[in-house]
Structures are given as structure tokens and as C-alpha cells.
């Protein structure tokens, strides 16, 4: 339970952090809240030579509106998202998702950027940013680029982040018109991580579903968008039959995880039930 020896640097700016990472592309790692990385280091699953602590860069933690977008800095903690009055008003899925994460200590230190960059198959934020069709802004030695959340999660604990890149910001189109959202989670009784987590964003036009975003975590090796469910919901009046027909597709094309707690078949059953509940909850909240 003791990590191998490593160096530690706490840069004051993002530019400095990028330069430090570039100085050792193989051995350096970003440290944010440390709530996934430090346990991995203690188990020696990760053995970085240099930790670049970005949690001390004050300008990286923020939640703000800009035009038709919501901008969230990478080191914004789960607790800051959970307790944001602004988000509660304009995008309540985010505080609801944050509230479901771990315990108070984890939420006080853990960051949205760290969770997304880590891409734990049972992490909650990946489901939320997929449902909201977020853009992720990455900065590295070759400058800045933006990646759709849908293209960011590549495999188990693997993302589109390239060596030396830092996830700088999460950008979400501000929901407008008539919309409803919900996060539905079955927490593992021991760890609190999602056995299944379903993030739902619905947009309505009169009585029918104009667009749907469904993000799923816990089921496969990585979080994914349930595009078949989204397509089946779109254009319907979201009655019980339409919802039941749509949620039957939540595990389409996914090889579900199986472990001592939940078989793949049980996970898909949970995903079906909780996608239905999430859609019904989001529909009931449409304003
Ligand atoms: C007891 C416990 C319970 C938990 N329960 C839950 C839960 O219910 N749901 C849940 O989703 N999570 C849970 N977590 C995980 C927690 O949310 C972590 O905070 C999160 O997964 C990682 O965020 P972090 O800021 O701590 O990142 P760190 O641990 O500092 O970093 C994680 C990884 O991401 C990289 N990284 C971090 N930030 C960036 C960045 N901005 N750009 C590029 N790379 C970066 C690091 O190099 C590292 O590889 C739990 C953790 C613990 C210890």
C-alpha cells in the first residue's frame, strides 16, 4: 500500500503544467483530486515518476454561462457541481449526478475532469456528459482541440487524451425550451460506484419528444450513449408503450460486464428498468 517514489510539482498556471508534462511524456501524470490516481499508485497499478498537481491552479475551477453554453473547468469538484444554484436552475442533471458520487470526502476532493479523464467503467460523470452531448476541451504540447464526449471514451480506462494533454474544460449546450432531466443510479453496496447509472436528457416539442440524450455507465467497459434508445424515443409522445419499446434497446451492441456482484444479464436487466425510470422521471420534470 505504499507507492513507488515520485516527484511532485504544483504549477501555478496551465501553461506551466503543460510544459511539465511535456518534459516527461512517459513518466509524468496529472494529479487532480487524487481519489482514483492515489489508490492506483498505492496498489502500484500506476507508477508515475512525476505528479503534476493541477488542483492548485485556481483558474481551472469554475462554473459559468457564456452565450448558449455552460462552461465547467476541469478541477471543479463534485461538491461544487452538486451545490451550484446556477446548475440547479439551468441543468439540474449535473448536480443530481454529482450528489450520487461516493461520500462527502470524495465529493470535496474529486473533480469532474479527473473522473472523465480516468474513464472508470462505473464512473458517473461520463454518463452525464454523454447524455448532454458535451464537448471536451483538451490542451497539450500541440495546442488546444475539442472532442465530443461521444468520441472521447475509447475503452476500459482509456480515452482520446494523448500523452501530455490535459482536459481543460467541459462545455455543454445550455438546455432551452421544454426539457427534463434525471440521473438514475444503482450504487454498488460496498463501493458506491454505479452498478448501473443512467443519465437522461429529454427535449419536448408540444407533446412529442424532439430529442433525447441517454448516457449509460456501469454496463460495459466504458460509458456509452444509448443511441438506439434515443432514436426510438424521438418523435414519440413518450407514453408507456413508446418508453417500453425504446428501453429494450439500452444494451444493443454492448458486451455487458459480469462480476461477482452482477452478471451481464442482470446488469442489462437493471439498465432496462432504470432507463425506463429515468425517462419517466425526466418526463415528469419537463417544464
Ligand atoms: C471511496 C471512493 C468512492 C468513490 N465513489 C465514486 C462514485 O460513486 N462515482 C464516481 O464516479 N466516482 C467515485 N469515486 C472516484 C472519484 O469520483 C474520483 O474523484 C474520480 O474518479 C477521479 O477524479 P480525481 O479528480 O480524484 O482524479 P485523480 O485521481 O487525480 O486522477 C484520475 C486520473 O485522471 C487523470 N487526470 C485527472 N485530471 C485530469 C485532467 N484534467 N486532464 C487529464 N488527465 C487528468 C490522472 O492523471 C489520473 O490518471 C470514488 C472514489 C473513492 C476513493
Could you give a short description of this structure?
With 287 residues, the protein is an alpha+beta fold.
Ligand species = flavin-adenine dinucleotide
Which radius of gyration do the C-alpha atoms yield?
Answer: 19 Å
Strand content: 25-35%
The percent of residues in helical segments reads 25-40%
* Global geometry: globular
The residue-averaged pLDDT reads 97
> How many runs of DSSP E, i.e. beta strands?
14
Number of helices: 12
Tell me what the structure shows.
The chain has 287 residues and is an alpha+beta fold. A hairpin with a 2-residue loop joins strand 8 (153-155) and strand 9 (158-159). The mean pLDDT is 97. The chain has helices at 14-22, 37-42, 78-82, 85-90, 93-99, 104-109, 112-118, 125-131, 149-152, 227-233, 240-247, 264-284, and strands at residues 7-9, 28-31, 50-53, 63-66, 69-73, 135-140, 143-148, 153-155, 158-159, 166-173, 178-187, 194-205, 208-217, 224-225. Helix 10 (227-233) runs antiparallel to helix 11. Helices cover 32% and strands 28% of the residues. It starts with 6 loop residues before the first strand and ends with a helix. The chain contains twelve helices and 14 strands. Flavin-adenine dinucleotide (FAD) binds at residues 29-37, 39, 54, 74, 101-102, 106, 110-111, 113-115, 117-118, 120, 123-124, 161, 166-167, 192-193.
